[in-house]
Amino acid sequence: MVHRCGTGGAHVVVNCVGGNTTRTLCNRLRQRTCSLRSRPDEIPGPTSHVSNRMKRKFLLVTANVGSLFEKSCRIHDGWLNKLIEEVRKVSADFVAIHMQEVGGKNYEECSSQVPPLVQKMAADMDKLGYSTGRAYLDLEFEVPDKYNALGSLFFVVDAVLPRIEQYDFEEKKYMRMEKGFEMVLKDLAACSKLRKAKFPKHFWPAIKWGRKGYIQCRFRHNETPVDFVNVHLFHDESNIALIHENPSLYSDNRKRALNYVLEEAKRVSDNNLKQHPLFIFGDLNFRLDSPSFLNRITVDADQRHDSLDPHGSLGGNASSLLTVEAAAKQLQNGPCGDQQGEQLRRTVSAIEFRRSPNGSRTDLPSSCVLRIEKNRFDYFNHKKLLHEWRTYLEDDKEAKSFPSLRELRIQFPPTYPWSENPDESEALMKTRAPAWCDRVLMNTAAFEMVCADEHAVYDSIGKNVCMGDHKPVILSFTSDV
């Protein structure tokens, strides 16, 4: 079934069918590009195949919108205005927007807000010359085995539409894009213009099976195929588990999931002889290396753990505190099934880092530098964490687990966890350690495309506006395709 509805000048079709190496490579590419441009006598004539190539500007956006869709709708306008402002500023030929947690955290109540907001976005994009677009939105929460709450949107400026084709994964061929805006809301798994999956349950049987997975779409620009993969990886379930049990507990599962995505993308490649550009961008949930980060921000502090306190007071009871090293030793001494060790795991409700005067063991409420609970990360100076983010950027190591993927240098503050209160848009929440969760990664072929443009931009947007708990991240670049 196809529904058409107006969005200003455009029409909407609602379709209801079933490190260092990096810098060296960038420099080499730029030198090579400059060398070619400085020798016009060697540029092929108008009859050559290369003459069909043209410069095209791309804008890639990833945004976790879990905070966007709530009963009050209070940040809808600010969020959308900032996005459209960025699109207008970049003036790209092709815009790809990846959203995660579409429908919000209370998706059963708030998913109905998604189509109207996307239609408004399409109308605003149409005013900027993007009268052609596609939106694939997974809102089918009533199908839990397939639901991953992802949304992938693509907009094409009118001038380049004749040179862009979309891949059909069933027909295994590229199709011309018809002018207009189409929005697919039902049976995404049956839509031939994308590949969609939820991560298998066996990836992490110990936790609740959440809305995590990926959507892959492919477009051909002239003769250059480009893959765009929207990914939402596993988050950190507990702050305490990272310290008290296994620092790599969650990152190992993210690695398993992203490697699965890479293998699937490789399996359905339409050209086995040559790797074409692949961009993976979404909420990858990458977190800081816990040991190095905590050592950095708690210098000269003692580590202690607190037994379960029914009153939940910050100070806790001094007599119940003991060093984390001692607690860990107790856990290691007994077998995995030891009842005492299991009891200790269950009763540890908080870990504190305290600086006591003159090296004493005196416990004063004012001496607490950091208190960590399952869903709380309470640092004594959160503003310092925000303003001095460059000092712990080197603790962002998780992307290095994927040697086949590249990323431009990060030069923007952590993208998570920002306040969801519009009145505190420039403050971090005290729920998790700051992290660069929202990323744009790419394979070598895509990296070459990006690095050929010395003016490529990799940044977060909405730094002074409430965009929810995640700041969207953009990558813009110009490439000959």
Automatic annotation (TrEMBL):
Pfam families: Exo_endo_phos2. SMART domains: IPPc. Residues 54-481 form the Inositol polyphosphate-related phosphatase domain. It is an enzyme of class 3 (hydrolase). Keywords: Hydrolase. Coiled coil: none annotated. It comes from the Eukaryota. The keyword Ribosomal protein does not apply. Its EC number is 3.1.3.56. One of its GO terms (biological process) is phosphatidylinositol dephosphorylation. InterPro entries: Endo/exonu/phosph_ase_sf, INPP5A, IPPc. GO terms for molecular function: inositol-polyphosphate 5-phosphatase activity. Transmembrane segments: none annotated. The keyword Cell membrane does not apply. Belongs to the inositol 1,4,5-trisphosphate 5-phosphatase type I family. This is inositol-polyphosphate 5-phosphatase. It comes from Ascaris suum.
